[in-house]
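Morning run. Coffee first, then this:
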Amino acid sequence: MTSTAKPDPTDFTDIRRDGWIGRWAPAPLRPYLTLARLDRPIGTWLLLFPCWWSVGLASPRWPDLWMMALFAIGAVVMRGAGCTVNDILDRKFDAMVERTRSRPIPSGQVSVRQALAFLVLQLLLGLVVLLQFPPAAIGLGVLSLALVFTYPLMKRITWWPQAFLGLTFNWGALMGWAAVRGDLDWPAVVMYVTGVAWTLGYDTIYAHQDKEDDARIGVKSTALRLGDTSKIWIYGFYTLTYAGLGLSGRLAGLSGLYLMVLSLAGLHLAWQVATWRPDDQNDCLDKFKSNRWFGWLVLAAILAGKL
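And here it is:
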């Protein structure tokens, strides 16, 4: 007999039911840890790598491990704060999208008031980390809050919210340089612009997961704007990413080993697009997550360029 039961509406979700939060965290903390996406670290990696790349570029030899650790802690905290802001502002949209309807706020596990209190706590922790840096980096960190709080609104007003995410997520390329050198220079600026192109690529892939729901509820994205031409555009975004990173390393005086290892990162980007299946939600998520390996390859290239 053929079953007529409807599928569970939360079948496709980015929340891991069997992750470490569900297994080990105390029950009262689970919704907040989930709200901060601590069970899904890919966003933290994507926020962190531009910081680490820039610290590596700016360092005269090897990057300072304490500074790298501070940026890692800051990325965890501020990524969580950004997700909390996003979920507060998007709670009504999230309730109408298959992938996001089981998030803590739209599912009723966390109220808006509780989420705001949690946000304040995260921002205070972020401030503690930020104050460990030199004044120039502190100033840039404060300025980044304007992007953190406005990015979630962009999907309402432009087909290119992924560009604004790029401006937000790659701000660390400026902060990392300023933390080491106390100023800004062209290698960091070029890396920042390059990071925007990288984000346009990987977040367009990510946005294809939700394109049907987004079209239904009126949310804009590059996945909807570019449609069937997305692959061509992403090839272009990733080509700019590779070229921009090459230029940034050259401006910073890295050796020829940098470009040799960077070529492996370029091949990874080419593999992403060539094997990507835009209508397969799981493949979209897998390709998006694979950018963690791209980040490591670029960092390895920068370190190799110091030899």
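The CA atoms of residues 158 and 220 lie 6 Å apart. Good start to the day.
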